[in-house]
Amino acid sequence: MSNLGMTSDQILASARNFIVSGGYNGFSYADIAGVVGIRKASIHHHFPSKVDLVRTLVARHRERAEVGMADLESKLPNPLALLQTYAEHWAKCIEDASIPFCVCALLASELPALPPEVAAEVRAYFRFLSSWLTKVMERGAQQGLLKFAGSAELQAEIFMAIVHGAMLSARANGNPALFDAILTPTVQRLAAKVH
Question: Which of 15, 24, 68, 130 is the most exposed place for a label (fewest CB within 10 A)?
Fold first, then answer.
């Protein structure tokens, strides 16, 4: 990877860390320059504005999620196993702080105050996630592996809300184990009882 690519990735990683710890308005280019060890002008070379930086960060987050979900589905065709693995991913990330929180979930809580370009990317991420979860729910119901009341679309939104709400609860309580304590019974309730 070129130095330009490495620097760009370092800037994005630093921005993600700042957003996770303090939100969209919780950092400046000066903060990033101090962490990455470059001048502010160099950051502007990669990302002319903060809007460009965070829009790129969210777009890449969504792109990685799309690739990750497709890879996961190729390895785990079972819809129940997909939901369990998805929940386990976030439980592990919260527990070991490798990815302490979904950057899109945090930005979604700031949606009314975000620049329109950033808000559009955050919404695109949630549309993707909702669509993916809906397809998982539909397949699971068709295969008799998942049971739920209402539509697959509604169940996908409920599951997504529980995941993000559990992240907030774990963070608010300073208790990473709380996420798993909420998600394990949620996934178990979705599992169809096989007789």
Answer: 68
Q: What is the pTM of this model?
A: 0.88
Which regions of the chain are under pLDDT 70?
A: 1-5, 97-100, 194-195
- Please give the radius of gyration of the chain, using alpha carbons only, rounded to the nearest integer: 18
Residue 27 and residue 110 in contact, taking contact as beta carbons nearer than 8 Å: no
HEC states along the chain? CCHHHHHHHHHHHHHHHHHHHHCHHHCCHHHHHHHHCCCHHHHHHHCCCHHHHHHHHHHHHHHHHHHHHHHHHHHCCCHHHHHHHHHHHHHHHHHHCCCCCCHHHHHHHCHHHCCHHHHHHHHHHHHHHHHHHHHHHHHHHHCCCECCCCCHHHHHHHHHHHHHHHHHHHHHHCCCHHHHHHHHHHHHHHECCCC
